[in-house]
Design goal:
Elements lengths: L1 E4 L5 H5 L9 E6 L7 E2 L2 E2 L4 E3 L3 E4 L2 E5 L4 E8 L7 E10 L7 E2 L6 E16 L5 E13 L3 H4 E11 L2 E10 L4 E8 L5 E3 L6 E4 L8 E4 L7 E8 L3 E10 L2 E11 H4 L4 H8 L2 E2 L5
Parallel strand pairs: 4-22
Antiparallel strand pairs: 1-2, 2-3, 5-6, 6-7, 7-8, 8-9, 9-11, 10-11, 11-12, 13-14, 13-21, 14-15, 15-16, 17-18, 19-20, 20-21
């Protein structure tokens, strides 16, 4: 699940010139496996309500209680499996971090891992869509379009010993590179890796998006489960190894050179419908 103000992957936001982020808002939900669904309805300003503790877009909302993030979902999935996706997700952080990582040299893009280790409870309407387990909660903020500053990036978050490990690698258009590894203990305390494990390439996605992550030099990372496969983006479960410990986590790869292509926007419009009007 991702909440957007200024839906960065929406073609409608790009076509608008990105002049008003609050006119392109969305709560994106994806479920995986047999019968998986994808919802990413782009909505206008009338659908947005915000307060200190609540972010609401039309029929769905995220609410912070002080110790839990409660996400109430009421969306319709996009083709080819059009149906209602409805229910509730509860995310309970073990700790909240104060970490902020600038992704660009001028601070125009910021990554904020609020709760790198959490417990999640999922209760959606549908057979098999009820479970609980290991969760994660972060955010990205930016004042420019991603494709204005980056050509490619990968991100990975992996459970590890008593906490988790996050890796962020990005190739910037100015020729510089971001390569950061962070270890979080069970209480969310961060440690920056002075020398992260080496970058290791592994098999491209179904749409041939290049993929890599960090791993011990002796280990070859590989996909365990495909989650989301798009012409410019891959999300998957990946097995890798750090400090001799094998782990499976969520990995993302984003090809912003492809995303920059105007030919891609009409394809995205099929999966990202625009619904500008909403009345509460």
């Amino acid at each position: 699940m991702i909440g957007f103000i200024g839906s960065v992957f929406s073609p409608w936001y790009a076509w608008s010139g990105r002049r008003n982020p609050e006119n392109n808002v969305c709560i994106n939900v994806a479920t995986y496996g047999p019968g998986g669904r994808f919802t990413m309805t782009d909505r206008g300003t009338s659908a947005l309500r915000q307060s200190r503790d609540t972010f609401q877009v039309g029929p769905s909302r995220m609410h912070w209680t002080g110790d839990q993030l409660i996400i109430d979902i009421n969306e319709v999935s996009s083709p080819p499996l059009i149906s209602r996706v409805r229910g509730q997700v509860r995310v309970t952080p073990k700790a909240i971090t104060g970490v902020e990582l600038p992704l660009s040299n001028d601070g125009a893009h910021i990554w904020r891992p609020f709760a790198p280790t959490s417990h999640i409870e999922v209760d959606l309407e549908g057979a098999g869509w009820q479970w609980e387990g290991h969760g994660y909660f972060d955010a990205n903020f930016g004042t420019r379009a991603l494709e204005q500053d980056f050509s490619y990036w990968t991100w990975g978050r992996y459970p590890h010993k008593d906490g988790s490990v996050c890796f962020y690698d990005a190739d910037r258009l100015d020729g510089s590179h971001l390569g950061v590894g962070l270890k979080f203990d069970a209480m969310g305390n961060p440690t920056v890796m002075e020398t992260p494990p080496p970058r290791k390439k592994f098999k491209r996605s179904g749409w041939q998006v290049a993929r890599e992550t960090r791993a011990d030099a002796c280990f070859q990372p590989h996909q365990v489960q495909n989650m989301l496969d798009a012409p410019f983006y891959s999300r998957s479960m990946v097995r890798t190894q750090f400090a001799g410990e094998e782990t499976v986590g969520v990995h993302e790869a984003l090809d912003l050179t492809r995303f920059r292509s105007p030919l891609l926007k009409p394809m995205l419009a099929v999966r990202v419908p625009r619904r500008p009007g909403w009345k509460f």
